[in-house]
Write a sequence for this structure.
């Protein structure tokens, strides 16, 4: 029996993980759940799934009385969250937390020798070298859950990275595929949240609309597989059927395909290296999946993609700054304090002021993250104050 802890259990990936685990009770035991701030939703999940432990990562100065909560070992705050990843009855930690809050649990799980099913891309973006060092030091095993990186991971089975010519990640293009830079000025949050192929949380859905998520995934791939950026590409694939390609030195190309669902890469990460039959997953039908289209990325219209790729190539603090400033910019857009293209302006300003420095430690990463958020928030405030949130 494999003991599973789910961090970010109330989000879309977390909920999908619970569905997968529920279908395989003979194989997986749900040991612990954790959420960032949604106590009511977490309590509902504890009552339904009955894990041994539950943690609300947000610091609670006055936690509710335990008798008012479903029965479990309850914990509060960051330290309780980190301790959950080290539990001896936990074999696999699913990190589905949103944002840079996922970095420290990622490090803790790997240092404790756990298998880490990683859906928190910000862990690798903000602390890639630290994460890979923690995996080597602790003996843990990182298995990607993002559909694109799970696809690459599967395509590489039995092959070395040295034999790879290119890794090609696919992007759906989001709801604004084909829009010009001028059209994007009038894009609204409700339009951006209407993703054509995936059902995800608000932040990652906006990242998909801006293609920032593809820039983050390029940075992830650089660290996960140890490949330089000249061997990493992105193409737009509206159907979201092909999740990534791997081209080898001899010209052979492998692709992992399937209808859009996060449950497949989640199941693979939980059961690795085995493959488990799951009748709950949709069988692939190549006729219904046809036709398949592929297009280039419009780097002028989707500047956040270009900025992110540049940040990855610069390295050092630039990916940390990009990630942090993007989170602030996304919130500003969702609050209608920014226009869609201005999210890139916010990130560009933070990168110009804080990017390109050497990363020295976890504490340094966290400090740069805080500083970048401050610069980004200042930029959002200035843009709104100057009235540039409406084009003149």
């Amino acid at each position: 029996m494999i003991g599973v802890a789910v961090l970010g259990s109330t989000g879309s990936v977390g909920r999908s993980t619970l569905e997968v685990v529920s279908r395989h009770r003979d194989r997986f035991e749900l040991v612990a759940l954790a959420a960032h701030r949604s106590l009511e939703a977490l309590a509902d999940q504890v009552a339904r799934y009955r894990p041994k432990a539950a943690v609300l990562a947000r610091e609670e100065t006055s936690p509710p009385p335990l008798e008012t909560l479903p029965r479990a070992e309850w914990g509060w705050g960051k330290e309780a969250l980190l301790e959950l990843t080290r539990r001896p009855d936990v074999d696999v930690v699913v990190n589905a937390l949103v944002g840079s809050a996922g970095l420290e649990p990622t490090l803790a799980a790997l240092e404790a020798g756990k298998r880490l099913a990683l859906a928190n891309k910000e862990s690798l973006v903000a602390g890639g070298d630290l994460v890979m060092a923690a995996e080597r030091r602790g003996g843990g095993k990182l298995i990607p859950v993002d559909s694109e990186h799970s696809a690459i991971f599967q395509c590489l089975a039995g092959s070395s990275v040295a034999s790879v010519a290119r890794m090609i990640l696919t992007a759906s293009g989001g709801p604004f595929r084909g829009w010009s830079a001028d059209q994007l000025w009038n894009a609204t949050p409700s339009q951006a949240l209407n993703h054509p192929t995936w059902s995800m949380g608000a932040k990652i859905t906006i990242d998909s609309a801006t293609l920032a998520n593809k820039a983050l995934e390029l940075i992830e791939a650089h660290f996960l597989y140890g490949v330089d950026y000249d061997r990493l590409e992105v193409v737009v694939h509206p159907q979201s059927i092909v999740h990534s390609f791997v081209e080898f030195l001899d010209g052979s190309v492998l692709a992992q395909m399937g209808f859009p669902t996060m449950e497949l890469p989640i199941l693979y990460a939980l059961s690795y290296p085995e493959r488990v039959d799951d009748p709950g997953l949709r069988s692939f039908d190549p006729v219904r999946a046809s036709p398949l289209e592929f297009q280039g990325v419009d780097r002028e219209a989707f500047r956040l993609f270009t900025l992110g790729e540049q940040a990855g190539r610069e390295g050092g603090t630039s990916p940390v700054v990009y990630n942090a400033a993007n989170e602030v910019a996304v919130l500003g857009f969702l609050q209608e304090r920014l226009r869609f293209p201005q999210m890139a302006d916010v990130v560009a300003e933070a990168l110009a002021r804080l990017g390109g420095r050497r990363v020295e430690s976890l504490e340094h990463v966290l400090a740069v993250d805080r500083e970048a958020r401050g610069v980004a928030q200042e930029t959002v405030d200035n843009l709104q104050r100057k009235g540039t949130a409406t084009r003149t």
